[in-house]
Amino acid sequence: MFARHAAGVIAVEQTLHRALLASLGIDPAAAAAAEPAPTTLAYTSYLLATIGGGSYAEGVGAVLPCYWIYWEVGKELLRRGSPDTRYQQWIDMYGGEDFGEIVRGVPAVANGLGPGLAPCERARVHRHFRTSSRYEWMFWDMGYQKQSWPI
Questions:
Q1: Per residue in 29-87, pLDDT tens?
Q2: Which residues are catalytic?
Q3: Alpha carbon distance 129, 9 (integer Å)
Q4: Alpha carbon 142 to chain centroid distance?
Q5: pTM (two decimals)
Q6: Are the CB atoms for 142 and 37 separated by under 8 Å?
């Protein structure tokens, strides 16, 4: 399921990003070569370390906020709408039922794993979920603040 999601995200987000970059007059090659902002690098590094070094359940706990928060934000923004077609494209994708169907599968997996976890592993899964949720907030705030490297 997660491999299918990753392949789908790459295809769908690349299409969306190409359209958004073109509408903003940004060269895709320049965007691809851009250095990630500090929070982006920290968050993606945290996810890769957790998935690579932890259990399957820990990986699920770490990625769940990415799915869930994007969908919750997308649904709220869908309710509000946007006069800017560029924003509305993003809103339609992440607030739409197609994405919702994907998202609903991830808590189902997490809930299925929960009863079989030892207390120490359950605590690690909860910690990863909280940490990724915090990183999600920081990721959104990073864009709002236009975060860059201080030196």
A1: 998 899 999 999 999 999 999 999 999 999 999 999 999 999 999 999 999 999 999 89
A2: 66, 136
A3: 21
A4: 14
A5: 0.89
A6: yes
